[in-house]
Write a structure and sequence with these properties.
Blueprint (H helix, E strand, L loop, with lengths): L1 E7 L6 H13 L4 E6 L14 H12 L4 E4 L1 H5 L4 H11 L4 E7 H6 L6 H7 L2 E4 L5 H5 L2 H5 L21 E4 L8 H13 L7
Parallel strand pairs: 1-2, 1-4, 2-3, 4-5, 5-6
Helix pairs in contact: 4-6
Length: about 200
Amino acid sequence: MRIGILGGSFNPAHDGHRHISLLALKLLQLDEVWWMVSPQNPLKTEDGMAPFEERLVSAQKTARHPNIRVTDIEQRLGSTYTAQSLTTLKRTFPKTRFVWIMGADNLKQISRWHRWTRIFNQVPIAVFDRAPYSFCALSGKPAKAFFRFKKKRADACNLADMAPPAWMFFHTRLHPGSATLIRARRAKGQTSKPAPKK
């Protein structure tokens, strides 16, 4: 099995997550993409973070594809760190080829993640374009540190079989989906409602 892992808070899940998952399934020739819903991202505040079960249901409703699976494995493992979760997944599924999937915004700031270099050395990584982060991401510390392990897009169908470190950047059609914007619109909608008549 060739499995892509898309981790995140999914607060809430949106069509941008689905968009890059479908691209990953096609370009990387994966069998499935697993959405790994994080119990609590250590780099994000709990303010405005929906309950885990609510985010899990949001992801399940948004996935809408037989080859996209939503998993609560991090919650069950009690893990909040990607490097730790990937270690467990590889040990649990030794014959599975995993690929870590992320947007350019995460490549830009992955150097803040716990044991981030270990992630590059654990599994191949597929990074998808996301405005306006791409230029900063490709010129940032993580991209420079692993520059010599960046592979050509022409070999995308073989990425899952490559020995890490190995990563690719995909300049693809951009999707406007943003959990931050969705939360902002929801908050604005709630505050703009007229007061109930007495």
